[in-house]
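Second attempt. The first submission of Peroxiredoxin had a stray character pasted in from the spreadsheet, which I only caught after the job came back as garbage. Lesson logged: always re-copy from the clean sequence file. Corrected sequence (384 aa) follows.
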Amino acid sequence: MKKNIINKVFVGCCTLGMIMLASCAKEGFRIEGTISNAKDSVLFLEHNGLEGIAKIDSVKLDQSGAFSFSGGRGDNPEFYRLRIADQIINIAIDSTEHIAVKAVYPQMATNYIIKGSADNEKVKELALKQINLQSRCQQLLAQRPELADSLIEVMLADYKRDITTNYIFKAPMKSYSYFALFQYVVINNQAVLIFDPSKDAKDTKVFGAVATSWDTYYPGTLRTQNLHNITIKGMKDERIVKARQKPIELKADVRGVIDLPLRDNMGNERHLTDFKGQVVLLDFHVFGMKGSTEYIMHLRDLYNKYHSRGLEIYMVSLDENQHFWKEQVANLPWVNVYDDKGVSQAYTATATTLPIIYLIDRGNNVVKNPSQIKNLDEEIQKLL
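This time the job returned cleanly.
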């Protein structure tokens, strides 16, 4: 009798153990939902791994557009894509998540709802920002090719400030922060990483912040080690990066100005060389950039303070939309011109940030270039 009881207990324990093992084996993620307007399209689930993109599963959608994919859990967040043709939805998977996706084809890359993961809502925000940035870059290349390189650099710098401040540095341990590190735009058929430690030493610190955080939360994993490798290489290359970034500007050892014959908002041609006898603040500006309003208010203060003593502002707009520019400058008291010829390149070719400011003395000589101006108010006073 006792032996039978022991046998029953043993069998019961074995059965429970098998159930638990089966349950553990089934642990993983599930992505399901619907893609409307996609009947007969093939939906792929792809893994975005360190070695590249790999197809995991696929399904031919019926009229309902319903789909369901599943996979095993990893030691760290992993990244997947739902794809039909060139329409992609990026998804970050952390542990055993259940993700619900509802999208509309053929705009599923931008027209979708994702539920079940706060991180994936952030991934969506980042993906949409990237798509918008790509669109703006393409528009610049098409409409302002002569200034595209300089303006794209400015847009990328502004984008990086937004992403580091509002996403990466706020929560470097999150999957969406890792995702943000590897975003890119395509310029002239070349993929350009937005964060690239091999070209910008500041980006090394951004990678380092995520690497340190992932080392705490996901120690020893391949993705964590990859982050460390990129950071270490960036640190080793920092000296080379600084040498590449050394400004090659107009030498401000008192040299004559290069004229900028451009039309103002009234249609009159203006010349930078016409202001001999005055101190000129030459400013290259994009009114559509973030922080423009505050910057213009600061310039108004300087203009009101020093105009009567001989200060003039010669502001060159690098905006894409000329009509928008005219609206922005309608009530500004200084000289406002629009460069639709590309003549500003003599001053802007090596710039990596806006605004770009030069100071010109009463003899019509460039005496301060952007890297030499630390306190604009003080530098203006010295020249008056």
